[in-house]
Structures are given as C-alpha cells and as structure tokens.
Amino acid sequence: MNPIFADLPTTVFEVMSRLAREHDAVNLGQGFPDDPGPADVRAKAAASVVEGWNQYPPMMGIPELRLAVAAHHRRFYGLDIDAEHEVMVTSGATEALAGAIFSLITPGDEVVLFEPLYDAYLPLVRRAGGVPRLVTLKPPHWRFSESDLSAAFSAKTKVVLINDPLNPAASIWPIEDLDMLARFVEKSGAVVIQDAVWEHVIFDGRAFTPLITRPGMRERVVHIGSAGKIFSLTGWKVGLVTAAPALMRVLAKAHQFLTFTTPPNLQAAVAYGLAKEDRYFTTMRSDFAKARDYFANGLRQMGFDPLPCHATYFVNVDLAAIGINETDRAFAERLVSVGGVATIPVSAFYDTQAVTTVVRFCFAKKQSTLDAALERLDAFLKHHRR
C-alpha cells in the first residue's frame, strides 16, 4: 500500500465525531449547519431528478451552471470569464483541489502552503511528489510577512496553495497581503491554487477579494469555490473551478480521470441558486453572524476571549488565555467525553506544533443546539476550576 495514505493516522475529525456519537455530545466539531438549506434550491434539485436529464452530463459541467459561474464572478468580482473555456464543475472542492495538485505538480516541485491548513492538502501534495514549504500563521491575526515568504519561496517553487477566507482561523487576508503574495508568485513563475470555498460566508460588511482579481494574477490562479458552502448544502459536493484556458486544459484532463462528472440535478439547482438575488446572500451572512455573536457572547460570559471571526462557520478560543494548562487535543477529548461537547483542536491543522492551545467551535447551528452546548461547556468549566 502507498505509505503516504497507509501511514496516515486517523484524523482528529473522525476521532471527535466518533466520540461525539459515543457520548451523545453536542457536535460543534464538524463544520456543517444543522439547517437543511434553502428550500427553493433543494426543490429545484428534486424537480430536476424527476423531470430532467439523469444520464452523463458534459464532463466540464452543464452549460447552465458554467454560465451561472461566469455571471457570478462578473457580478461579485467584476471578472470577465469565458464560461466555455474557463469554468469547470467538479464533484466537490476537494476533487478540484486534488485534480489541480495532480495536474500542476511533478516530483520534486516545491509547493508553498500556509498552516493552519485543510487536512487534505499535505497528503495530496506528497502523493503528487511535491515538496511542502510551510508558512506558519499564528493567532490572533493569522498574517504572514515578507520574510516568511522569502523563506518559503525558492527557484523550485511551482505551486502556491492558499485558503482564503481561512479555515480554521476565520480570517480574511487584507489586500496588502494578497499583493505581497502576488509579487512573490509573479517573480517565481508559480501557479496559485486558491481554495475559496468560504467566499460568501463573510461577516460585518467585509469584502472578500479573490487573488485572481489582483494585478498579474489572472493567468496564474486556479480559483475553487463550493456550492456546498454557498448554500449550506455540504453533502452536495459541487465544486466550481475557474482558471485561464491554458491552465483549464490541464485541469480538465485530471478531472476526466477522477470523477469525470457531477450529478446533473445538483448542477441545475446550483445554477438556479447562483442567480438568486442579493437578499439571499446578505441574509445568509446576517443569520450566520447572529449565530456567531450569540455563541461568542456565551463564551465570553464563561471567561473566554474568542478570537476575531470574520468568515467561515467557526469561532476559536485560546485555552491558555484563561489559564487552562492543557493541550488543545487533550482538552477537546476530555470535553467531549466528560462535558458532552465536541470541538476540534486547531493543532490538527498544523504540520508543525506551532499552535497547541486553540480549539475551534462550529457555530452554524440552531440556537437550541448552541444553548445546549453552552450549558454543558459552562458546567464542564466550573467543574474544571474547582
């Protein structure tokens, strides 16, 4: 068996989900809402199964969805996208990431990544023969410096893989950081894979700027979005890929031999959803922001000082800041088994041991779920402090 996968330990996400089931815990670990998603989008998918085409759709995606993605980028980012040559639909963003990594990396190429990072990145890069070069980001601001980039980039840099907005940090990189990164990318001749699945889950009137819109980046960025995150339908696994034609020709070949295509009824529903009026997007963000504020205020009442949260479904807390002398993983395992609340230790998102005292909570839940979690967490902390 391939040791890259055979030797991987059981992920902490799987461990925490199993413990949550065993202890009947409130699960604020895995990042999914407990809302079923927009009824009209789901109804469109259902109608498309009954009334629509259920055989192989076009490999690159149904025309309606590819046109909808191009219109989306024009509407939100001012990008002029050619739907026929620059848009592809995949079976989830992770498939898009895998295809991009496999098609852009050859053995020995160096890949610049930023930790904390999505757990699929490193196994996929290593399976492709890439050599990871990590830039370590730390709370509370999760930003990088020019010296960080100078240490990571080299003559062998082939690909840069970024997640912005950033999970689990719940941060959005400012324009000046993007432009600094763009200068290094342009100088190195690298290609950027941008995991932008959280592009619409942003709060407080903040704007997300895709790297593909910055000077010199239009031909160098593979932009990957997720219908599952845009519409809170994480089980649908519909990825939305945008890239210049020269890149897309290669990305498409990898996609052809991974999943080839994606269920046509889901594609039709996503095309419908992307055309929804602005009120859908603003209401979705407002609702998540209210849940964030409600949960964060509950944490503050217990003595926590939640880290800033500008995007994603997640709020982080630093255990050391309130005097809990315990690693994040040990705390998380004790909290789920004794306190009945599942969370995720942020150290799981690092290849190094740079951050070991921060835990991540998913607030994308109904108020009753958050209330149950806060009540249990409060009781757990009071017992811990005795």
Automatic annotation (TrEMBL):
GO cellular component, one term: cytoplasm
Thylakoid is among the record's keywords: no
InterPro entries associated with the record: Aminotransferase_I/II_large, Kynurenine-oxoglutarate_AT, PyrdxlP-dep_Trfase, PyrdxlP-dep_Trfase_major, PyrdxlP-dep_Trfase_small
Domain of life of the source: Bacteria
UniProt keyword list: Aminotransferase, Pyridoxal phosphate, Transferase
Cofactor requirements of the protein: pyridoxal 5'-phosphate
Key word Transferase present: yes
Domain Aminotransferase class I/classII large: 24-377
Alphabetized Pfam families for the sequence: Aminotran_1_2 (PF00155)
CDD domains: AAT_like
GO molecular function per UniProt: kynurenine-oxoglutarate transaminase activity; pyridoxal phosphate binding
NCBIfam families registered for this protein in UniProt: PRK08912.1
The protein's name in its UniProt record: Aminotransferase
Organism: Candidatus Raskinella chloraquaticus
